[in-house]
Design a protein that fits this description.
Helix content is 34%, strand content 14%. By secondary structure, it is α+β, with helices and mostly antiparallel strands. A hairpin with a 2-residue loop joins β3 and β4. The longest helix has 12 residues.
């Protein structure tokens, strides 16, 4: 199975993980999810692979999270809709590989997938 990284080239952690994968001989499929956002179905599929809920991949840092006024009471469905509309809300990097999927924070978690 190929390795896929949901990547933001402006994120130092994401760049580190991508570099590590390449150093170990992997040629991951790179999905720049800010340029090609996931739709709601894609986010749900990714959540299933990660075996987590939307709050577990929600990036709470930054202006987008604050501007949308998301709270602990926001429904999972509403969070998924917000992530599809505003992909910067998705934590990065996310790596999917033959052994599973993780949010690679800390970056060493990438090795759980390959």
């Amino acid at each position: 199975m190929a390795v896929t990284i949901y990547h933001n080239p402006n994120c130092s952690t994401s760049k580190k993980v991508l570099g590590w994968l390449k150093e170990k001989g992997h040629e991951p499929k790179v999905v720049e999810y800010l340029k090609t956002p996931l739709d709601e179905a894609g986010i749900k599929s990714l959540l299933k692979k990660l075996k987590v809920g939307p709050r577990d991949i929600l990036r709470k840092k930054g202006e987008a999270f604050e501007a949308l006024k998301l709270t602990d009471k926001t429904s999972d469905e509403a969070l998924i809709k917000a992530m599809a509309k505003t992909p910067v809300l998705i934590e990065r990097p996310i790596v999917v590989g033959p052994k599973g999927a993780v949010v690679a924070r800390p970056p060493e978690r990438v090795w759980e997938t390959v």
